[in-house]
Specification:
With 440 residues, this protein is mainly beta. It has 5 helices and 30 strands.
């Protein structure tokens, strides 16, 4: 779905008395951010096609610009021609430091799957891989899901569920009781680049749920609560047929479930259940739960038979079932599905979503307090698909999103979270089959 930087003009950066001057339409050259004006690098990421247009299985490219260029509709970015290839056989799982100067990555699948790497952002297509790596694959496999906690760039949490089997898989004389996998929750020190600790355990559901074949298939999107003593981890549920052992594609869904573990010990897993929604809440490739100023955690759902909801988890680390926020109802659509979203502050969030069974992506501005949602007025295209989207950047009142249909050019859009004003920014030059997957 996305882009290219055309100009070969070389612009000389002049930095004096903490000010920045840059050539607006330059396609190369490095301009230092101005820390005194809270300038920061903005990294744009694109996924290359593997075998099918939009599959994102060909690897990941990144390119960084300053805010002025990101906001300039006359500035063009081509990550595929001028960007830096981040280590990953398939789509990399990227995170950025709060100031934008460092990019974190855990390679996904392949020979280096599970390898954590840290990159210094230098501007344009220049990224320097720091001489520090750690591989977590022996604990969380070569395809771990992970998120950076909102703790000042200190910690990343990787999670995985592996080897789901029936309790009587090796001894059929035993009565069937459950399907369970081995869950891993691992804490990674992002600064020292080492594993702080990990825990592995089975996570049971109720006996009644397990007898019907329900199990936790995937963990993802961990978030640290306000008290910083619990992690809430999203789940993706699966159901097996107890008689045949086959996976059932359609089934009566349970209430939306999360796993709560003690932090930092990662011990004592506990399952909590929402009665508001029956969707999963693992997200896909981006964070899916956020702590608001009110101390509550807000979490989106996917694969929800009632359309996606925003759920609330209170400071007792339990679902608040009195809080009912249906995106279907708020947007006046059916079958809404949250691909990615980001909390922007003061009760406002931006949601990338689809609806009515289509894959076309839309963006909505959401008020979590009023429980309202409004589709944002930008240029939409039938080939716009946010299914693999990873990074929405919030910087002050500004929210940055890369909007590009698969194989077509697009733009960075900047939304003011306070006023709702929309600004069309830099052009994102695309190539056939590719798409842009985030801004960091």
């Amino acid at each position: 779905m996305k882009r290219q930087l055309r100009n070969v003009l070389v612009c000389t950066s002049v930095i004096a008395a903490f000010t920045i001057t840059s050539c607006e339409n330059a396609g190369s050259g490095t301009v230092e951010p101005d820390e005194t004006s809270k300038e920061r690098w903005i990294t744009v990421a694109g996924a290359l096609m593997g075998t099918t247009a939009g599959d994102g299985n060909g690897g990941t490219m990144v390119y960084s610009v300053n805010k002025a260029d990101a906001k300039n509709p006359n500035f063009s970015i081509s990550v595929y021609d001028n960007g830096f290839p981040v280590k990953s056989t398939r789509t990399a799982r990227l995170q950025a430091s709060e100031d934008g100067t460092t990019l974190f990555n855990i390679a996904y699948s392949g020979d280096n799957g599970g390898e954590f790497a840290r990159y210094k952002v230098n501007g344009s297509g220049s990224y320097t891989q720091e001489d520090v790596t750690v591989n977590i694959s022996q604990y969380a496999t070569t395809t771990p899901r992970w998120s950076k906690l909102f703790d000042g760039d200190k910690t990343g949490i990787a999670v995985n569920v592996a080897s789901i089997v029936a309790n009587n898989a090796t001894d059929k004389t035993k009565p069937f009781a459950y399907y369970r996998g081995t869950a891993t929750v691992l804490a990674l020190d992002l600064q020292k680049v080492l594993i702080n600790g990990y825990k592995q355990y089975e996570i049971p559901l109720s006996a009644e749920e397990e007898l019907k074949g329900h199990t936790i298939f995937r963990l993802d999107a961990p978030v640290l609560n306000k008290a910083q003593n619990k992690l809430i981890i999203g789940t993706w549920m699966r159901k097996y047929n107890p008689a045949t052992g086959t996976i059932e594609s359609t089934f009566d869904r349970l209430g939306s479930k999360s796993v709560v573990v003690d932090y930092p010990s990662l011990e004592n897993p506990k399952v909590i259940t929402s009665t508001v929604s029956n969707g999963d809440n693992s997200g896909y490739r981006s964070p899916n739960a956020f702590v608001s100023e009110d101390g509550n955690i807000y979490q989106a759902t996917q694969r929800d038979s009632k359309g996606s909801h925003i759920l609330r988890i209170n400071q007792n680390n339990e679902y608040d079932n009195s809080y009912v926020f249906s995106l279907d109802a708020a947007l006046g659509v059916k079958g809404s599905y949250v691909d990615s979203w980001k909390y922007a502050g003061n009760g406002i969030a931006y949601v990338l979503y689809t609806h009515d069974g289509t894959e076309q992506g839309y963006i909505a501005r959401v008020d979590l307090n009023a429980k309202t949602a409004t589709k944002v007025n930008i240029e939409y295209d039938a080939d716009l698909n946010f299914a693999q989207y990873q990074g929405i950047l919030v910087s002050g009142d500004e929210v940055y999103v890369a909007v590009t249909p698969t194989g077509k050019d697009g733009n960075i859009y900047i939304f003011n979270s306070k006023t709702g004003v929309v600004t069309k920014g830099a052009k994102l030059v695309n190539k056939a089959g590719n798409h842009y997957i985030g801004i960091f």
